[in-house]
Design goal:
Blueprint (H helix, E strand, L loop, with lengths): L16 E5 L5 H10 L3 E6 L3 H10 L8 H7 L2 E4 L6 H10 L8 E4 L10 H5 L3 E7 L8 H5 L4 E5 L5 H10 L3 E4 L5 H28 L5 H19 L7 H4 L2 H14 L4 H17 L5 H16 L1
Parallel strand pairs: 1-2, 1-3, 3-4, 4-5, 6-7
Antiparallel strand pairs: 5-6
Helix pairs in contact: 11-13, 12-13
Protein name: DUF2520 domain-containing protein
Pfam families: DUF2520, Rossmann-like
């Protein structure tokens, strides 16, 4: 018998109607990914012109309506608003009676687990916390990047399978995070991803000041290799003057940064001290070289 033809997602019966409250960079991309899995986006809310244009691009023909109307139309609702706005949004939706019993209510905050959804849970909602560990651009490329993306998942035990199934349908990999560990989990991601952007941007600015015409091209291979080595080997991948104990080189760095970019000195010193501590602990930095190095770093703080 000939092999059966794959069924296009558009031709499959939709399993859940999907709504998005908060058309930032995350919500429309997740809804578009769920649409590819056979679900049906039916409503989205957005305040700014930028968010409305983003929703129109990623979710064409899906109507823009107020948040309460999103909940009225959808069986699965994505709450994709900034962390600080989430508690107030949930309380407001619950108090106004917008939440319906049996409705899947999903937030994408890294900081919170499901406790923040308690007002909606008391109204009968089914609470899920699904945080994609990825940076978003607000464009269609985000849908492709979800393939293989890890999600921090927190949910009541009886909803765990449902939460993990939704992540898998979006192409992601579920990683279970306990409720009390969510702030630490989110801090770890921010430390790596958010601070990395700051460090790279500062590095490019300094290279331009040094006369490098294409700092992005220079840094690309170097940072790519450093990231790959760090993910493979952890602290064993440490290289550079701090790990080697080159106190004179570090002193020259600090002097040049004070002259050309004084705003970067505090960050350089803090990261250098942390790097030295980790290099010492892992036997990369020799104790006899560490004393002079740490002296340079201490002196850098007093100037």
């Amino acid at each position: 018998m000939p092999a059966s033809e794959p069924v296009d997602p558009k031709d499959r019966p939709a399993r859940l109607t999907v709504g998005v409250v908060g058309a930032g960079r995350v919500g429309p991309a997740l809804a578009a990914s769920l649409q590819l899995a056979g679900h049906r986006p039916v409503a989205v809310s957005g305040v700014s012109d930028v968010s409305r244009r983003r929703a129109a691009s990623l979710l064409p023909d899906v109507p823009l309506v107020p948040p309460a109307e999103v909940l009225a139309r959808a069986e699965l609702v994505l709450l994709t608003v900034p962390d600080d706005a989430l508690p107030g949004l949930v309380e407001g939706l619950a108090e106004t009676g917008a939440v319906r019993p049996g409705q899947l209510l999903v937030h994408t905050s890294g900081r919170y687990g499901t406790a923040v959804l308690d007002p909606a849970r008391r109204a009968g909602a089914l609470p899920l916390a699904l945080h994609p560990a990825m940076t978003f651009t607000g464009t269609s490329v985000d849908v492709q990047r979800l393939a293989g993306c890890s999600f921090g998942v927190t949910a009541p035990e009886e909803l765990r399978l449902a939460a993990e199934a939704l992540v898998i349908e979006m192409g992601g990999e579920p990683e279970w995070i306990e409720e009390e560990a969510r702030p630490l989990y989110h801090a770890a991601l921010a430390l790596g991803a958010n601070h990395l952007v700051t460090l790279v941007a500062q590095s490019m600015e300094l290279l331009r000041t040094a006369g490098v015409s294409a700092p992005d091209r220079m840094l690309g291979p170097l940072l790519g290799a450093a990231l790959d080595n760090a993910l493979r080997s952890g602290d064993a991948a440490l290289t550079g003057p701090v790990a080697r104990g080159d106190a004179g080189t570090v002193a020259a760095h600090v002097a040049e940064l004070r002259k050309h970019a004084p705003g970067t000195v505090a960050g350089y010193l803090a990261m250098a001290r942390t790097t030295a501590d980790r290099a010492l602990a892992h036997g990369l930095l020799k104790p006899e070289l560490a004393e002079d190095l740490l002296g340079v770093l201490a002196e850098g703080d007093t100037r």
